[in-house]
Amino acid sequence: MTKSATIKIIVDGFGGVGKTTLLKRHTNGAFDPETKLTIGVDFFSYDYNQLFSKPVRAQYWDIVGAARFNFLRPICYRGANCIILVCDVTRPITLERINNFVDVANKLNIKNDQIILVAAKTDLYHERSIEQDYLSTFLEKYGFAEIIETSARNNHNLDVLFELATVIGMFNKAVINKDDYDWIKDDLKGRVEAPINEIHDVRKCWCCNKNLYFYEFCDSNLSSINEQSLLKLWESKFVELYCCSCYKKLNINQIV
Question: Which superfamily does CATH assign the domain made up of 5-190 to?
Fold first, then answer.
């Protein structure tokens, strides 16, 4: 039996809990709206029994983006086969220090074409403040392997993102050759889907009054009703709508 290769992938940036949420959705198969911020470094792994005819284990190092943990970055980046840098499409500030992460990588001989820039939380289309054209300037400036827009909530582009990161790592670790790498990478890039841009009305949570968006409403209710039926309820002005946190508290109070 062929031994599985281990590919080290760093997941970094100022995406906040968005980074960890992406990893949890990919490795556990479920979206957790109450994911906590990583403190220091956390670890995840995902086994591909046959990724383009190769058994591979992707090992993800989730690094907190806060400046006080900068001392960890060179230690963690050493020996990395690929880096995923995550920004939040609702927070332009999450792109401001991209050059810092790139500099650390370059000093450790990690090239820019081993880095993927990820724009997370595309499901928050009504709050989006980083547009595609602006993201493209980072691709031109740095020569990243790819820019991919994702959503952990909707599982948007997650499979192709993590497969591409693993394949970049496989090539960097000489698990696959250049010819295989080129056609696999082109195939994966062709699977990247356009970002979600469907607009529904923004509603308010009846309990805490914060903005509520359609897919959060879906998270709370999809176990009992399908999405099309939920959309009809969403559009009704006579239905009480709750965010995930308030909905959970409401259920707890009912049980008590």
Answer: P-loop containing nucleotide triphosphate hydrolases (3.40.50.300)
